[in-house]
Amino acid sequence: MSKNGKNTAGILAGLLAGAAAGVILGMLYAPEEGKETRKKIKDKAGDLKDQAKNKYGEVSEKVKDQYSNISSTFKETASSVAHTVKDGYDKYKDQIVSKTADVVKDVETELNDLKK
């Protein structure tokens, strides 16, 4: 996961924890019956749990999409580099074979001249 993704997840977790603490403290100091307060805390905790699941799902999907994009880009780049290297190899191989044939002809010519 990228550094930005870690920061976002940390901020999200901090915000959710702060919201939960604020709601709980507010309910505890509210002038209501204990039973009603506990029910509200339980309901709010369920709501926060659902929100956290939703955010986790969203972040998870974004990470999967980014991984897919990066993976795809890497594969394309690697393929392009491989083709470039192969094309360069083929080009220089043909030049070397041609130059080698020229050198062999020159050596044969020199040897024939020396034999005469």
Automatic annotation (TrEMBL):
Residue intervals passing through the bilayer: 12-30
Keywords: Membrane, Transmembrane, Transmembrane helix
InterPro entries per UniProt: Desiccation-related_membrane, YtxH
Gene3D superfamilies for the chain: Apolipoprotein (1.20.120.20)
Protein name as annotated: Gas vesicle protein
The species this protein was found in: Chryseobacterium lathyri
